Amino acid sequence: MPVIKVRSSLREYEVHLGTVHDFLRHLASLEHKLFVVDQNVWRCHADGILSALPRSETITFPALEERKTLEGVQEIYEHLLERSAKRNLTLITVGGGILQDVTGFAASTLYRGINWVFIPTTLLAQADSCIGSKTSLNYGRYKNLIGSFYPPSTIWIDPSFLRTLHKLDFYSGLGEVVKLHIMAGEEKTRQYLGSYDSICALDMSTLQRTIRTSLEIKIDYISDDEFDLGRRNMLNYGHCIGHALESVSDFRIPHGQAVVAGMVLANDIAQRRGILSEEKRRFIETRLLLPSLKVKAKPSDLDAMDIIDAISKDKKRIGSGLVLVMLTEAGEMVRANDVEAQEVRAALEEVANLLCEGSRF
Ligand SMILES: NC(=O)c1ccc[n+]([C@@H]2O[C@H](COP(=O)([O-])OP(=O)(O)OC[C@H]3O[C@@H](n4cnc5c(N)ncnc54)[C@H](O)[C@@H]3O)[C@@H](O)[C@H]2O)c1
Ligand SMILES: [Zn+2]
Q1: pLDDT (tens digit, 9 = 90+) per residue, 53-73?
Q2: Where are the alpha helices (DSSP H) in the chain?
Q3: Could you give the count of Cα atoms lying within 13 Å of 191 in the half-sphere of its Cβ?
Q4: Radius of gyration of the chain from its Cα atoms, rounded to whole angstroms
Q5: Which of 24, 123, 181, 290 could covalently link to 192 via disulfide, CB atoms 3.0 to 4.6 Å apart?
Q6: How confident is the model at residue 285 (pLDDT cuts 50, 70, 90)?
Q7: DSSP string for residues in 33-59
Q8: pLDDT for 110-144, tens place per residue?
Q9: Reported confidence tier of residue 229, pLDDT bands at 50, 70, 90
Q10: C-alpha dihedral over 231, 236, 241, 243, to 10 degrees?
């Protein structure tokens, strides 16, 4: 069974890929533990993959952004302290990025850090967010404002959870997968294209291989920059404008889908700046990005004033221009700090039709 080791300043941790059945039985035999399971995952898998979980040491938690808060964390503390007031507790999370964030923050702060195991169940969490050590909470109207760096001790990825994932959540995760493959260059891009139909048909071995490749690409970007001070920033490809689209659409456009649209826009700006050819930009757009863009944007989601305003407010912004990560003709990633509002406006005008068309399931 494939195992990936990830280095981190806190500890080295392992990512296992394959059936989680035996590992769950092992976790169920631990003395002091609590399983926190996404409510929908529990509904779909309580009598199947998760049947080994002891009911008295399992709680469910809803995957709602409104619960990814300090209050949500306090709820988790209460449940943990009810079970054992000792440091030797293991918290086991089964769910997607929301459960990862709220429980990861709880695990990182209770007793300044308890043992934490993560079993991701969405494509986004399996192929992207499970590694990288970040936990984030929403605060008031600010998304992901509070957080910590804390990796799980073990991550176990079983792609069979993905069979019950809603299509929209699947394609949101696919947005991050395609981003990572584009960032890794032509060979990985070709590999992704060749696997695309099998990925969408949920072929388990293809999914496992694609998730593994995605994680390896991400590790390459974070291994020397865990705290996001340099190279790791490049993973924000598609995110600079993507985050703005998420908030302007009131989060109707899910994260990974907004990232796909963000890459389309970033590529348009890169072409205008003469660092990406029209040919390469068109190839990426028509073969890689648009096929996985399933959410249609409304014209109001693409209002240039609102988008530029939202980019300007983004917490990652430094300096006076807008910050944008772009792909170059040579396949390298560059980060510009001097993008002008006019460039974003022109890109929005150019691709608005494409983004509003979208392609449904
Ligand atoms: N910490 C990080 O590094 C990081 C990185 C990226 C995103 N995030 C956060 O992750 C969150 C998004 O996470 P996500 O896209 O994984 O989705 P999610 O956790 O919001 O889950 C999406 C939906 O799928 C359901 N679900 C989860 N697994 C399922 C399964 N196997 N079968 C059926 N339903 C299932 C959930 O109940 C929910 O309704 C956001 O809050 C985002 O900010 C965190
Ligand atoms: Zn992302």
Answers
A1: 999 999 999 999 999 999 999
A2: 21-28, 39-45, 70-83, 97-109, 123-124, 167-183, 186-200, 204-222, 239-248, 255-272, 278-283, 304-313, 341-357
A3: 18
A4: 20
A5: 181
A6: very high
A7: EEEEEEHHHHHHHTTTTTTTS-GGGEE
A8: 999 999 999 999 999 999 999 999 999 999 888 89
A9: confident
A10: -140
Ligand 1 centroid – CA 257 distance (Å)? 13
Q: Whose CA is nearest to atom 6 of ligand 1?
A: 129
- Average per-residue pLDDT in the chain? 94
- The atom of ligand 1 lying closest to the CA of 104 is 1
pLDDT > 70: percent of the chain: 97
Residue 350: partners with Cβ closer than 8 Å, 6 or more residues away:
268
Neighbours of 232 (CB within 10 A): 18
**Token representation of residue 270:** 């890169």
pTM score of the predicted model: 0.96
Count Cβ atoms below 10 Å from residue 190 Cβ, excluding itself.
Answer: 11
Question: Pocket residues for ligand 1 (CB within 6 Å)?
Answer: 38, 40-41, 44, 63, 65, 68, 95-101, 121-122, 124-125, 129, 132, 134-136, 144, 161, 164-166, 169, 172, 255
* Structural domains present in the chain: 3-164 (3.40.50.1970), 169-357 (1.20.1090.10)
Give the pLDDT of residue 9. 86
